[in-house]
Structure formats: structure tokens, C-alpha cells
Amino acid sequence: MNAAARKTQRIYLTLTLGNTLAASFIWGINTLFLLDAGLSNLEAFAANAFFTAGMVLFEVPTGVVADGWGRRVSFLLGTVTLAASTYLYYLLWQLSAPFWSWAVVSVLLGLGFTFFSGAVEAWLVDALRFAGYDGGLETVLGRGQMVSGVAMLAGSVAGGVIAQVTDLGVPFLLRVGVLVAMFGVAFWLMHDVGFTPERTTHPLRATRAVLSASIENGLKNPPVRYVMLAAPFNAGVGIYVFYALQPYLLELFGDPRAYSIAGLAAAIVAGAEVLGGWLAPRVRRLVRKRTTVLILSGIASALILIVLGFIQEFWVALALLTLWAVVAEVGMPVRQAYLNDMIASKQRATVLSFDSLIGSSGGVVAQPLLGRSADVYGYPASLAIGGVIELIAVPFLLASRAQHARADVANAPTSTPDAESQPS
After folding, report:
1. d(CA 230, CA 228)
2. pLDDT digits 0-9 by tens, 307-328
3. Nearest alpha carbon to residue 8 among 230, 216, 189, 253
């Protein structure tokens, strides 16, 4: 990695650190925050589903911003939108607002996150290629996941502890403050290189073009299509599990106001991100095909959830949660690298955003469905049901593997240019 590539990596890691720190202040207590505002389990997870629906709704339009106006512009708009909508969430909590208002602001939160999804990763890959870096993307993306995990660990633990010594609203105000600071950091450090935005005066026409490009370069590309079709089952269940673990662990712990325990759940997932990001390139060096990692990770995480649904002992559940998170996080950088190596630079942000859209669509359905199952059957049963749903992703990953894409064996330990062109 040359000096220019190292500089790009430092900027990427800085943006990842600040963004994740800001977001994670509330991740350990978000479900408790919604329940404290008077929402039922169904309403709380329905509010989360509206957040996810906002991501689905705005992924393509914000992809127009990223590809048409620049990844830097998209990031800056994301910080402003997310800060404003987070503050509105805080006001709704103070006012004990009706459910419809939570639904509206949740959609705006989703809009904020769509400005980030795809744009930052596309900025990184294009800037690295421009700098002359031709190594495996798992290494850099794994480092990003490790930094994200450290930030999430610090933010979620701090958010839980601060909520316990003050109230559930203060972590939301902290998120707003850090996002404002990140606007300044990104304005100073982040510049589009290796990519020229194609600005247009016809946003609706551009949106149609982006959607068409997403389908052409995503769903019509068989190995990419099957990875995308697996996403609703993995991502939808993952979002639910992350937020359901907060009240689930508090229930097992026996103290409904031990917010630091809820923060611990998010902190364990954060620690798993660090470990998973470190392990990903090492695991990748042990296997020739990236899809091997994805398939084994998907099966293992689903089976752990099913087992977790039958556990009533707090410390055993905590250990299984840790294992589930590590297994899931090992697969993330490998999946990102696999997709990026199959996408052209011009459509990178677009296709990555479309991939996020498809994954988020699973959360729109899974969260209220599993939230309702928690109301009726309890949290353990809802986790087991989630594990069964996650297993549905495996056949799609097997179908992607069967396409023998060059990206599946790119940067493999035993691969050669001739070997990479041959199916195995």
C-alpha cells in the first residue's frame, strides 16, 4: 500500500470511527427508549420497520445524489439529516407522542442513513484504485469493520451507562453533537478522487436511470443477484435480533432498568465486529472461494439463533450472543469484497445502495413480524423463528457460488490468473 492509498485508508477509517460512534450512542438503549415512550413491542418494532422502510424508499434517490453530485455531498447531507431527525426523536420521547409521529420521524432517520449507505464504500474503493492499490479489499474493509467495532463498543457502553445515570434521552443528544462534528471533519478531509460525478438537472429521469442501472448491473448479473436475494433474510433477521437482545437480556437479567446491561449487548456485537474484521482476511486465506465463508457463516449464525431461543440462563445467552455476532461479522468484509469485485466503478454506489435497499426490505417485514411473535410467544421464541428465516438465505448463496464468478476466487491464496478463469 503506497502513501496515497494509506492516506485514503486513514480518511475512511476516520469517517467510519466518527459516524459509528455517533450512531452507536443509542444502539444499546433504542428499544428501551421506544418502550419507555409508551409504545408496545409491536409498535416499537413497527417504528424500527418504518425506519427500514425509509431506507428502502430513499436508497435509489440518494444513490442519484452519490453518483450524480458526489460521494462527499452525499455524506455531508447524511450527517445533517440524521442529526435533525435524531433530535426530533428526542422531542417525541419528551412529549410521549402518538405512534404515527414516531413512524414519520423513523422514515426521516432512514433517509439520513441512506445518504451514507453505498456512498462511503464506493468512495473508498474508487479512491484506492485511483491511488494504485490492487490488493484484496478484505484487508481494508476488515480494518474498517474493526474501527467500526471499537467505536460501537465505546458508544454503546457509554450510551447505556449515561442513560442509567441520567435518562434515556441524553444519548440521543450526544449523537446529534457528534454528527455535527463529523460534518466538519468530512467537509475538510473527504474529496472525490478516481470518480467524476455526472450531474443532471432532471432528478426524476436520473432516478429512473439509476434504478435501471441497479437492475442491469445488479439483479441481471446472476452472481450479484443471488447475493442480493439472500440479503432480506440475513439483514432483516439481523436488525431484529440486534434490537430484541436489549429487552431479552434485561428479562433474563431480572432488572428492567439495568440499562448498562442493554448497552452490554450492543458492546458485545461491537467487540465481535472488531474480532470479525480481524479474522475475515485470515479466514479468507484459508479457503479458495469467498462464497464458502458466506455460506458457512450464514448456516452457523442461523443455528445459533435457534439454540438461543431455548436458553433461559443469562450468562449462557450472553456467550451465545457473542458467538453469533462473531460468526456473522466474519462474513461481512468477505461479502463486501465479493460484491465490489463484481461491480464497475461508474455504478458502484448505485448497486451498493440497491443491495442495501433489498436487505432493508427484509427488515420492513421481519421486524414487526418477529416483534409480534415476541408479544405473543416471548423473545426466545422470536429469536428461534428468526434463525429459521435466516436459513432461507443459504440456497441463494449456493446459487451465487454455482455461477463461478471470477470475484469468488479473486486474491485467493492458491489462485493464479489461469486458475481464476476456471470453474471449481
Report:
1. 5
2. 988 888 888 988 898 899 899 8
3. 189
Residue 343 near residue 351 (C-beta atoms within 8 A): yes
The rounded Cα 228 to chain-centroid distance in angstroms is 14
Q: What is d(CA 355, CA 422) in angstroms, rounded to the nearest whole number?
A: 27
- In angstroms, the CA 182 to CA 187 distance is 8
How far is 222 from 270, CA to CA, in rounded Å? 33
Sign of CA dihedral 140, 321, 237, 14: negative
* C-alpha separations of 402 from 145, 291, 341, 421 in Å: 28, 10, 17, 14
The 10s digit of each residue's pLDDT in 25-78 is 998 788 889 989 988 878 888 898 898 888 878 877 787 787 778 888 999 999
190 dihedral zone (left: phi>0; alpha: psi -120 to 50; beta) = beta
Angle between helices 222-253 and 41-68 (to 10 degrees): 140
Helix residue ranges, H only, 215-313: 222-253, 259-284, 290-308
Task: Quote the CA–CA distance of 172 and 64 in Å, as a whole number.
Answer: 29
Q: How buried is residue 376: exposed, middle or buried, by Cβ count under 10 Å (0-12/13-18/19+)?
A: exposed
How far is Cα 58 from Cα 327, in angstroms, rounded to an integer? 30
Is pTM beyond 0.85? Reply is no
